[in-house]
Amino acid sequence: MPKKRQKPSTDSDLEESLDIRSLAIGTSAPHTIHKHSHDWHQLIYASRGVMTVNTATGSWVVPSLRAVWVPARTEHEVEMPGPVSVRTLYLRTGLSDLLPKDCCVVNVSPLLRELILRAVEIGMLDRNVPSHQHLIDIILDQFHALPTVPLKLPMPVDRRALRVAEAVRENPALVKSLDHLTKKIGASKRTIERLFQTETEMTFGKWRQLSRMLHALRLLAAGEPVTTVALEVGYDSTSAFISAFKTALGTTPGRYYADGHLRKRG
Length: 266
Known about the structure:
- The chain is an alpha+beta fold.
- The protein is 39% helix and 25% strand.
- α2 (110-122) packs antiparallel against α3 (130-144) and α8 packs across α9.
- The longest helix is centred in the C-terminal third of the chain and has 18 residues, at 204-221.
């Protein structure tokens, strides 16, 4: 079970002046926080490890040095496949009109990282405390300039297309054709292709490639060699995987490490 260091207060007498609350979780084994929602906005930061945040509309892979923004009242699930250190900030709704309206993954700068850790150390930021208000203002300034990164996998809504999507996600190395995948779901290949285009704004081929690349990120974050990851996500050669990775994410797996996107281990 995860170790929790701080828990957001629910004391109504205190909450009226609170703008930011925090939570710290550390896991040493795979763990899932099942579907739930909050009345406050949430920034979930992976200071170590990798996690996946799932909602009804998509999945967001969150490697270390990244965070996912979850707007208030958005039902979500958090999957932690291995050791993870999570630092979460909860922001009061109405705190700023410039905060993101939808879920997204954002880069966490060194400054924002230190601000998050400081806020977690304090536990709750009360705008009536001058030093807290100053910290709140700096955090909001950082939030307004957060660059987003394309780590979302949109999910189709139609149950037939969703069954195909789930089959691909459960077995990223699956090389079966779309014709084969649609045989047991009562829909034609053309119907599924149309549904993916309409509901995810991607062709099925592009969607499957992105699904594989996001799964590859999880494996790379766990320290798996690039050659092993290539096979795990359905590529016959490392070079083909590297090319696809660069097409989907704008850089190679090796450069992703070198740029500090992930912390290489082992």
